[in-house]
Amino acid sequence: MTTPKIEFRDVGLRYFTPKGETQALADISFTVAQGEFVSIVGQSGCGKSTLLSLLAGLIRPTDGEVLIDGVPVTGPSPQVGFMLQQDSLFEWRTIAENCVLGPEIRGDDRFEARVRAEGLLKRYGLGDFLDSKPSELSGGMRQRAALARTMCLRPDVLLLDEPFSALDFQTRLSIADEIGGIIRNEGKTAILVTHDIPEAIAMADRVIVLSRRPGRIKSIHPIAFPSHGDRRPGSFAARDAVEFPSYFKTVWEELEVHVE
Amino acid sequence: MSSDTSIAAAPAASAAPARTERAVVPHSRQYHAWLAARRREKLQIVAAQIGLVVAFLVVWEVAPRMHWVNPMLTSYPSAIWQAFVQMVRGGELGNHIVVTLVEVVVSFLLAMVLGTAVAILLWMSPRLERVLDPFLVVLNALPKIALVPIFYIWLGAEGSIYAVAVAVALFITILMLYTGFRQSDPNKIKLARTFGATRRQILAKVVLPSNVHTFIATLKANAGLSLVGVIVGEFQASKAGLGYLIVYGSQIFRMDMVMAAIVILGLMSLAIYALIQWAEFRITRPAKRGG
Ligand SMILES: Nc1ncnc2c1ncn2[C@@H]1O[C@H](COP(=O)(O)OP(=O)(O)O)[C@@H](O)[C@H]1O
Ligand SMILES: [Mg+2]
What separation in Å is there between the alpha carbon of B61 and the centre of ligand 1? Predict the structure, then answer.
């Protein structure tokens, strides 16, 4: 049996504050295979960001274990790339300088990192903007620059925390399609957190539905589009696939149950 | 002339055509009229400002001469000018200015360096900050001028001037900078943490660069405060400086001397302010692109 890329074993997380304890996550157990794309949906406050923070090594679980390649996560690792809701590009740096932030913090070779950053930015269509300031870029371009910044450390696990929610609807569709394609082509393992059900379905191989706080796994839905043959359609095409509406209905109902 | 208008096309845009879609429209007749109206308005404002100063000087000159007010109490501009010329001829004025200026610059720099160091220390160690917080609040609230006699006894005439000026500027520096540090974008800090940044790296890569504007605001506040501190220190005990000139002039009832010193003080703070403004422009101006 091969070790899964990511494994949650009976993970629970409680936040401690002077006001009391908040159980954010409880009894979370699941695995993600190498190269798989998993979406996590749930209402706001159900612990989605918490789950990613655990994987990124920003916080430790209060119960259970989080493993990557069978090894418990003990802190941030260059192997794990995190894309946050805000692109958080540093406005005092150029795009290329923003892109090498990770390697810079890790103490990698600067020249090598710069070459890698320029290569990534060119591939993502930002070749003309290496020396631009973030304010000169549109929302979609900024998000692509943020992806390049994440990729610059060559992570093999990507965590995406509602990375498209700050974009307008049209940009959001095309950027999701584009970034989804990039991640698939490069064979990365990815976990996408969102509360947009169509987006979750269109991008993923599996959708995990979390219950309300404390977040528990309510159900897991494998997503496949046999109508498109063996190749998985891009997220744009997936939205038009014949299978899409029924997935949407199922996930929708799973979430709907919780509305009082 | 009006290079400060935002209408001027950004030179950066022309370098990369695809970058912005700011359309360049040939200037219409209405646009020229609008520009002319703007220029007129600007001129009118400057004229009003000059008029205000002139009117003030005229009233100040005429009122004491006509004995509407007691000239002993108010002096008048021409007398102040004469006092000024006389002091310049005597060579002592330059000395007074230099003494005060040196005191201001030295205590300003001391307060800035010390304050920045403490603010960084507080940010690096939240526990230390929690321990020191109430003390900082009390020290900041305490009127530092109350300490002048103590500083005088401890440090003598010269030392007490620096001590007051630093004390006046230091705590506000610490609080302003530290508050700015605390308000750094939590998302940027989280991002740095996902890359495994240490607290020191977060400071260097996120907190300090994102607080350039806080730093400049602190510089501005500090310049004024150091000047206040120095003058107050000179009031207590000094043998030279503009503060000394003011006290001395009032003791021998030479209002012209007092007023001349105050005017120079005003000009001095204006010069310092302009210097900082210039520094701000140099620092925050978008860097020139290579290529
Ligand atoms: N640092 C924290 N301290 C205390 N409670 C927290 C903290 N972060 C999150 N929480 C709480 O944990 C729950 C889950 O938060 P989060 O993971 O951000 O949810 P989601 O991303 O699904 O909206 C929320 O109720 C939130 O209030
Ligand atoms: Mg969240």
Answer: 70
Residue with tokens 């006509």: B66
pLDDT of residue B22: 56
Binned at pLDDT 50, 70 and 90, residue B214 comes out as: very high
Q: List, chain by chain if needed, residues with CB within 6 Å of any ligand 1 atom.
A: A 15, 17, 22, 24, 42, 44-50, 213
Nearest neighbour of B187 by CB, restricted to A86, A101, A106: A86
pLDDT band with cut points at 50, 70 and 90 for residue B212: very high
Sign of CA dihedral B86, B88, B90, B94: positive
For residue B230, pLDDT over 60 is answered with yes
User: Quick one: chain B helix, strand, coil %, rounded to 5?
Assistant: 80, 0, 20
A231-245: average pLDDT: 82
**Minimum-distance ligand 1 atom for the alpha carbon of A161:** 21
pTM higher than the cut 0.95: no
Structural domain spans, chain B: 1-73, 75-290
SS3 content of chain A, % helix, strand, coil (to 5): 35, 25, 40
pLDDT per position as a tens digit, B73-127: 888 999 999 999 998 888 888 999 999 999 999 999 999 999 999 999 999 999 9
Q: In CATH, which superfamily holds the domain spanning B75-290? A: MetI-like (1.10.3720.10)
Over residues B65-72, mean pLDDT: 89
| Ligand closest to CA A165 | 2
Which domains can be identified in chain A, with CATH numbers? 6-27+37-45+56-195+203-210 (3.40.50.300)
Element (H, E) at A11: strand A6-17
Amino acid identity of A135? S
* Residues B140 and B278: beta-carbon distance below 8 Å: no
Average pLDDT over residues B168-184: 94
**Phi and psi, residue B255, nearest 5°:** -60, -30
- Give the three-class secondary structure for A65: strand
Angle between helices B255-284 and B242-251 (to 10 degrees): 160
Report how far residue A180's alpha carbon sits from residue B164's, in angstroms, rounded to the nearest whole number: 62
* Residue B168, CA atoms < 13 Å, CB-side half-sphere: 26
Judge contact between B249 and B255, C-beta under 8 A: yes
For the record, the structure tokens of B236 come out as 């207590």
With CA atoms as reference, report the closest residue to B215 among B176, B171, B260: B176
Cα B245 to ligand 2 centroid, rounded to whole Å: 64
Task: Count the neighbouring beta carbons within 10 Å of the beta carbon of residue A18.
Answer: 4
Smallest Cβ–Cβ distance between A75 and the set B191, B196, B206 belongs to B196
* Chain mean pLDDT for chain B: 87
Do A49 and A27 form a contact (C-beta atoms < 8 A)? no
CB contact under 8 A, A133 and B286: yes
Which pLDDT belongs to residue B237? 80
Q: Give the residue ranges of DSSP H helices in chain A.
A: 48-56, 95-99, 101-106, 110-123, 139-151, 169-185, 197-203, 235-238, 244-256
3-state secondary structure of A102: helix
